[in-house]
Amino acid sequence: MKSHRNPPTRLSRKLAVLGGVALLCTAALAVAGETVIRTPHGDIAAIDAPKSQQLNARTAAAHPFASARQRAAVQPMVWVDRDAKVAPAAQAELADTLVRTAGSAPGGNAPAFGNYLARNHFRATWDKLEALDARQPAAPISALGGEKDGAHYAYSRFPGNYYTSQWKAAPWNKIGKLYFTKPDGSGSYCTAQVSSGNSVLTTAAHCVYTFGAGFNSNFLFVPAERYGEAPYGKFGWSTARVPTNWITYGTRRWDVAVIKLTGEQTSGLPVINYVGWLGRAWNQPYSLYTYSHGYASNLSTQYTNICAGQTYDSPTEGTNVVVQGCDMTYGASGGAWLINYTPNSSAGNQVNSVVSGPHIGAFGTAWVGARFNDDNIVALCTAIGC
Q1: Using one digit for the tens of pLDDT, what is the confidence trace for 180-198?
Q2: Which residues form a coiled coil (predicted)?
C-alpha cells in the first residue's frame, strides 16, 4: 500500500495515545528526517540515515568508528532504570488484556560460500584471529546463580563467540557490536543481531533513541566482533525504527528497535551474504528456556557471553516484560534472547526479546527484556520491512 504524508506535527507525548489508523501512513515530525509510521499494531517513529552515514568505500575512512582503535575507545551503553521513574499517570500504558496469537519467522543461512567470501575479503583479519585462536586459553569458568524473585530460577553463564568453532558459525556469527553517537556527541556501543533476510538488526530502543534526547546516529554494525577485529566486515545503516511509546514512556516493554543495514563498506555485499540471519518469535509464553547474549563489559568487551535459564514474568516489571537470571551488565544492551537454541544451524535460534536493563532491585543478578509481541516487534517489522 502506498504511504501518505500527513501535515507536520510535533513528536510529543500525545503520539503515544494516537490510535493506529491507516497502514503505513506517515506524519512528518518536528525534527527534519523523522516521521511517524502508523501500523495496525501501533505507531513507530522512523528516521533515515544521512548520505554521509550510509557507509561505503569512499566514506568509510571518515567514519567515527572506522578503526579498531576508535572502536576500542568507545564506552558501553549505561543502563538507566526508566520504569522506576514512570509517572503514576503513565502506568495505564502497562496494561494489556488482549489475547495474542503466537507467531514466528525462521532464520536463514548465508550462502554456502559465506565464510569463503569473508576470508577472502578480510584475509588479514581472519589470519590475525586464527593465530590468536591457536594460543587461546580455555574458556573462563561458567557462573551459576539463583534468582531472588518470581520462580527463583537458576541460570548458567558461559562464553559465546570465544572459540573459532563459534565465531564462524550460527547463531554466534549473526550477533555483533552496534556502535553509535549519542545526541550529546559521545560514542557508545550495544549488542545487536541480524534478525531478518532483509538485513535488519534487532536491538534495544535505548541503543537507537536516547530517552529524552533524540535519535542516536552514526550506527555501525560489526557482526561477530572479537578482540576489536571485524571478521565479516562493517556495515552502515539506511533507516531505523523505534516505537513512539518508547519516546513517550521509556519503559521496558517498548525497549525494542530495528535498523536496516547498508552493504559492507568495501565489498558492498549485504550482511546476510556473510552470516545469514536469526529467526524471530512473538507472543510466546513468558516462561521459556532462553539463551541471552551480550558483549558485557563487566566480563569482557572482546567476545560475547551467554546466560542460559528459564524466563518468567514479574509483577514489579509489568506486562510484556520478561525476566531472567544473569550477571552481565553494561554493553549487553540489545543482545538477543534466543529460544529454540540450536548451535551450528539456521533452524530455531529465534530472537524472543533483547536485553533492556537490570531487573528492579537485582542489578548484576537478573535482567529484563521486552517480551516480543504484536505491539513492539510486529509493528516495527511492519514499519521497516523485515
Answers
A1: 999 999 999 999 999 999 9
A2: none
